[in-house]
Amino acid sequence: MRRTIIAASVAMVAALSLAPSASASSYRSDYVVSAFGMRLASTSFQSTITGDGYTINGTMRARGLARLFTTTKGAVTAAGSIGNGAVAPQSFDVRYTDDGKDKRTTIAFSGGRVASAENMPAVTRKDDWIAVPGAELSGVLDPIGAMLVPARSGGEVCGRTIRTFSGALRADLKLSYLRTIPFSAKGFKGDAVTCTARFVPIAGFNRSKREINNMRDNGRIEISFAPVGRTGLYAPVKARIVYEGTTVNVTATRFEQLTN
């Protein structure tokens, strides 16, 4: 489960790299994932925004003592558009190697809904598998697009439900305001709005899956969002996930626009 949390955290903070622009712009974002006072993983993302579209390329790798438990490394790419106060994903592709085993998830979107999704290897489906109804695949966001929040001010960031689809699991994140904190990283210094995020699994999992049930019933998530320039968008710069006595922290060390 620790590897699952790390991978989910990395996918989540990938959204930091995004910001729309009237002309092509490039961005660089770096992050660290830590637990038990140790660095578990590092990630780096390069993004290009042209007009109302975005593309992202990112990498992740286990670091420090985490290498004793996992050999996780991988890459993620995503693309989509931003307009009319909303994010519209078009494609999502994450590939990673875990303990020598290659894994991959791809999602394609069309007309505001999931057009296709594939997991390799396939997700294990037991007798208590909860299938995702077709209606639940409309108006959803991939793990990157889900963390890009359009808002006119920090006060509008929380108090919303984000509908997510990871390629198998369909879940909601229900955001509620918690506090506002100061935050700084290379390329950014200012306030970040912190929301609690209640994890609500909808479908696409085995009903007896202990990890998902425990995260729903006992897990705690906090996400701090910061404004992305003057774009009217907010993205996470910090996250804290508490699960079964383990606290995983994700922190941006760089959040910088490189070119205009």
List keywords for this structure.
260 residues; mainly beta; 2 helices
How would you portray this structure in words?
This protein has one domain. The protein is 8% helix and 59% strand. Strands 1, 2, 3, 4, 5, 6, 7, 9, 10, 11, 12, 14, 15 and 16 form a 14-stranded antiparallel beta sheet that branches. It has a two-stranded antiparallel ribbon with strand order 8-13. It is globular, with a radius of gyration of 17 Å.
Largest sheet: 14 strands, antiparallel
Number of strands: 16
Contiguous low-pLDDT stretches (5 residues minimum) are 1-8, 10-22, 65-69
The helix/strand order is: HEEEEEEEEEEEEEHEEE
Short description:
This protein is mainly beta and about 260 residues long. The protein is built from two helices and 16 strands.
Secondary-structure map with pairings?
Layout: H1 2-13, E1 25-35, E2 38-50, E3 53-62, E4 73-83, E5 86-98, E6 101-110, E7 113-120, E8 129-130, E9 149-150, E10 160-165, E11 170-185, E12 188-203, E13 205-206, H2 210-218, E14 220-227, E15 233-243, E16 246-259
Antiparallel strand pairs: 1-2, 1-16, 2-3, 3-4, 4-5, 5-6, 6-7, 8-13, 9-15, 10-11, 11-12, 12-14, 14-15, 15-16
